[in-house]
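Let's sit down with a protein and look at its sequence and fold side by side. Please make up or recall a protein chain and show it to me in full. Label the sequence line and the structure token line clearly, so we can match residues to local backbone shapes. Go ahead whenever you are ready, and we will take it from there.
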Amino acid sequence: MTKRVGLIGWPVAHSLSPAMHNAAFKALGMDDWEYDTMAIPPDIGHMGIREPMRHGYIGINVTVPHKQEAMKVVRPDDLARAVGAVNTVRFTDMHGTNTDVTGFIGDLQAHDVPLAGANVVVLGAGGAARAAIFGLKREGANITVVNRTRERAAQMLTDLTISAGVKDVQLKTLDEAAEGPVDLVVNATSAGMWPDVEASPWISGVPFPQGVTVYDMVYRPAKTALMQQCEAAGGRAIGGLGMLVRQGAAAFEVFTGVEAPVDVMFAAAQSALANKEA
């Protein structure tokens, strides 16, 4: 009998997760496991999170826009409660956790990006932004948040203060934040994600900080419009593929109880991305 796990979100057609998880299953001889995707529209998120369980799934990854809604459906662990978002669910015990923090911080460290004392601008106020702020604060960074809807960002920061004791995070407009000092810009929005590849969360006309590092959580395309803006300003741009792989490896272990072959997953994700962009 096939043991099924997968990804829910809206959209999910761009996802590389099936390629990397199924490659991991194959490499470990876990031939009775399979990973796929299920598109769940935003307006039925609460019901949709449970839908895969009704079809026999062992667990799911949760992506935009359902990470916060998942908190209401499962039993979130301490990390998920601190972040206020769930991205991994194990249906056998309705356990919900957040592997985005591990994936994000782990990939920044793998790229030797200094975090302690760094001045970081986080773009966004959704589940990914919550994970980024929580992880960065834990590493000792100074954080400024920029979001299109200021009220939503303010609510996110209030939630993080209550759930995780996150304090002293500034909320600014992009113009204000760009004045610096800025060491790192993190895109935790979906702006620039395929198929809307021309979009950027960095508004035209706002000067880009010189020599800054950009970490774009978007991984398709491999080089987003934001990353191109960064490089044009003499900065360093890092895409989100490594975060995807590292959070996926952590989720793999939640689903299976088996150590994930990270190198295999990384190679499979790179290959799948190259094929999609060919």
Summary: The chain has a mean pLDDT of 96. The longest helix spans residues 241-256.
